[in-house]
């Protein structure tokens, strides 16, 4: 059973239902209930709730703990309670008191419930072997690659997800700031830079991080790096510097010792 | 005339030729000359060189200055000399001595000469009105959006281009490092994170930087940010921290004052 008829709840419910999983969706508001009917899915009745084997909470992070408290008494004894929030540990579901708990966090920005989830990954976490097998089967059926994430490593995992989305946007915003200094508007800068960023990502996809990393650091060109730092406003330089050091850790081993030393001096 | 039959030289020559510009390509090695013939383009003869109006140097950055010295005496008096290197000022072409100089730097990673340049941007720089008009017409004909970059702003412009390509790859490598700490291999991490990064870029394309920036900073969730910093290894935290501060400058104005102050304390 899926609780919540938002974009993620809808996408999971549709994908599982298409693979003949017996899905029912619980939605509170009349608007959400109408969405569920529009998707051609069944709304959860009291009987469905009492007989559900797995209850997937697809609600905003802040609603997970209250929803867990609300749902625990309504579910059958053996039913598992699972949240879909990347940032939250299993503790967000409250004390287990004999109930099997888990987390199922698809690494995907769902912009419409009808979007396909296939080709993305999902982070799974649970202490129950039975639930892990169920969640892995779910993942496989909807085309998600399952990653097992241990509870004590969840924060690092989630920080990585955040770095790859918001973090990349922040790096891009420093790039746009640099172009603003050169008299180019945000709109023109994004139109110019987004294709570059995308081609860099294709390079990483094809050749990995170290070989896909390009630019003056990769060429060991300390003069260009020094000119960049001199030209950037402080807030963009504050991003350029650590990202360059990070790049240096990717490619430093293949640079001549002298270039490596000069770059370190400039960047430190 | 295009000097150099590498990927960029080939792509420009093919695109200009398709729009009926009278293009000839000069290539030194027999292998490069064969490539030019394979593309169906004409090789430059001595007569072509003497009658060329614009000479585009499509050579590696380090070869620009020697190539300029080599070509200046061979070209007609009124012919313009133009390089295609983003990092280099016009000074890389040496003293003008009456010759019109310029730079034409397409913001695009060309992986094959037959790739289309259309939809990307190009940074133009020249002190000559005549040459600027020619370069703008070239840009328009091959589908490149022309950005005018002043010489004294070139380093900032180029730093932005580098941030949007290598810088983004460096941010992604910190994300992969975070997932490594969570027991996930580089290969699995990239497969999981690249779709997230791409969807974040689509968000920026559709809604701009500030609205396309997502994650705990955008939600004002200081607790999650503190947990991330505690969980990350120092080298990944050294990237996470400045990128988060940069994100905060994008969205801080829409956060409650208390959340903003807490985030600043954690990140500073």
If you had to describe this structure to a student in words, what would you say it looks like?
The structure is a homodimer. With about 270 residues, chain A is of the alpha/beta class. Chain A has two domains: about 1-150, NAD(P)-binding Rossmann-like Domain (Rossmann fold, 3-Layer(aba) Sandwich), CATH 3.40.50; about 155-265. Chain A contains eleven helices and eight strands. Chain A has helices spanning about 5-20, 30-40, 45-50, 60-70, 130-140, 155-180, 185-210, 215-220, 220-230, 235-250, 255-265, and strands at about 1-5, 25, 40-45, 55, 80-85, 100-105, 120-125, 145-150. In chain A, strands 3-2-1-4-5-6-7-8 form an eight-stranded mixed sheet, with helices on both faces. In chain A, helix 6 packs across helix 10 and helix 10 packs antiparallel against helix 11 (about 255-265). The longest helix of chain A has 28 residues, at about 155-180. Chain A is elongated. Chains A, B: This is NAD(P)-binding domain-containing protein. Chains A, B: InterPro entries: 6-PGluconate_DH-like_C_sf, 6PGDH_NADP-bd, DUF2520, NAD(P)-bd_dom_sf, TM1727-like_C_sf.
């Amino acid at each position: 059973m899926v609780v919540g008829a938002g974009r993620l709840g809808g996408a999971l419910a549709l994908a599982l239902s298409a693979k003949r999983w017996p899905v029912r969706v619980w939605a509170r508001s009349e608007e959400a209930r109408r969405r569920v009917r529009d998707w051609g899915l069944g709304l959860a009745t009291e009987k469905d709730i009492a007989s559900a084997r797995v209850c997937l909470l697809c609600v905003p992070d802040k609603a997970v703990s209250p929803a867990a408290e609300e749902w625990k008494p309504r579910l059958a004894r053996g039913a598992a309670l699972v949240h879909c929030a990347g940032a939250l540990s299993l503790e967000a579901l409250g004390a287990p008191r004999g109930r099997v708990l888990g987390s199922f966090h698809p690494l995907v920005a769902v912009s419409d419930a009808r979007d396909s989830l296939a080709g993305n990954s999902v982070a799974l976490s649970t202490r129950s072997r039975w639930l892990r097998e169920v969640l892995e089967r779910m993942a496989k059926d909807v085309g998600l690659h399952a990653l097992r994430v241990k509870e004590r490593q969840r924060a690092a995992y989630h920080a990585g997800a955040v770095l790859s989305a918001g973090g990349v946007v922040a790096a891009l915003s420093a790039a746009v700031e640099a172009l603003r200094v050169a008299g180019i508007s945000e709109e023109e800068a994004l139109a110019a830079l987004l294709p570059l960023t995308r081609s860099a990502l294709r390079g990483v996809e094809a050749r990995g991080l170290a070989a896909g990393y390009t630019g003056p650091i990769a060429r060991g060109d300390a003069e260009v790096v020094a000119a960049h730092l001199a030209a950037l406003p402080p807030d963009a330089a504050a991003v350029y510097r650590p990202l360059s050091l990070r790049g240096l850790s990717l490619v430093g081993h293949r640079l001549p010792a002298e270039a490596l030393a000069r770059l370190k001096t400039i960047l430190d």
